[in-house]
Amino acid sequence: MTHITEKYRTLMIRLFSGEIDETAKADLDAWLKSSEENQKVFEQYEMLWMLKPSKPSEKISDREETWRKITEKIDQADDKLGGKKTRYIKLPRVYISAAAALVIIIMGLFFFLPKSEKTRMISQSGERDDKPVELSDGTLVYFKNEGTLVYPEIFGEDIRRVELTGDAFFEVAKENKNNKTFIVELNEVSIVVEGTSFLISQSNTHNDVDVSVVTGQISMLLNADPLKRIEIIAGERGRYSSSADKFSKTKINDYNFMAWRTGKLEFNETPLVEVFNLLEETYEIDVDYQVELPDVKLTARFVDESPEDIFKTIHLLYGLDFEFKEGVYYIK
């Protein structure tokens, strides 16, 4: 692991806080370009900078206890970074490594510095047929099902942070001026992006999360350990399994998962059972088939078609009759 001098730790902190001059930034850029390992360390420190502070109800009033918790978190990060604990600085009743001291100061700011002004938070619930939620930066959020989005009326100067319950598609606006990171916080993981579009799907019974990236690139990171993360690019689907406590990713083979937004469905040698399952998800309908389905596969493309028109096509192709009754399509 590359040894990080106090000089470059200081430069990173000055960069994150927006207090770096051009000369110092050029020095830091040269250090980052000198090796991939330096770049990785920089990204890890950047994740620490963006760590979410405790919720108001969870804040610890006792200053000493708060410092202890901060120290424990940094010690864990220091171990992951391969830091050498060779020189120690004494804070009130807490000994910490000099290698972590500056990062602790960063995190301490979240707890101890007063906010310059309070931003009004908005909690908005919605469902699929609602208009998209437009955030102050121009980002659009489309609910796929019933969900709730919590967001500030106006984003601050450092980062853009929202909280999501349910499934939603994000079209994140690119911040050209300050290049502010956009963070979507879920129950166990957070999605970190700048300007991109992606669909978040969350399990109703578990804390599993799927993120399908349509454009751009994202990072998925574990809230309890921000250094544990995975990068997902356009055309990939990232997944966090809560039971296995691990990230994984796969290639997206088709974009029918976006049909509820685009109105486009494409089937290529798709078994009828899968077709019906996708129609249920896309149109929020129920399909009931008590008959044995023919062993055939559908190849077809539908654009802005109603479910009834699609079932008529299936009838013409395979002779399957259907009846719509009380919100259910019955296949005969």
Describe this structure in words.
The chain is an alpha+beta fold and 332 residues long. The chain folds into three domains: 6-112, no CATH class; 121-251, Sandwich (Jelly Rolls), CATH 2.60.120.1440; 256-331, Phage tail protein beta-alpha-beta fold (3-Layer(bab) Sandwich), CATH 3.55.50. Helix content is 30%, strand content 34%. It is built from eight helices and 21 strands. Helix 4 crosses helix 5. The chain starts with 5 loop residues before the first helix and ends with a strand. 23% of the residues are buried. Mean pLDDT is 79; it is low at 52-71 and 83-117.
In short:
This protein is 30% helix and 34% strand.
- Quick one: CATH class of the largest domain? Mainly Beta
Strands, count:
21
Rough shape? elongated
Q: What is the H/E order?
A: HHHHEEHEEEEEEEEEEEEEEHEHEEHEE
CATH topology name of the largest domain, in short, is: Jelly Rolls
What is the annotated CATH architecture of the largest domain?
Sandwich
Q: Cα distance, first to last residue?
A: 66 Å
How many separate structural domains?
3
**β-sheet strand percentage:** 25-35%
Number of helices: 8
Q: What does the radius of gyration come to?
A: 25 Å
- Mean pLDDT reading: 79
Low-confidence stretches: 52-71, 83-117
Proportion of residues in helical segments: 25-40%
Largest sheet, strands/sense/barrel:
7 strands, mixed
The strands making up the biggest β-sheet line up spatially as 3-6-7-9-10-13-14
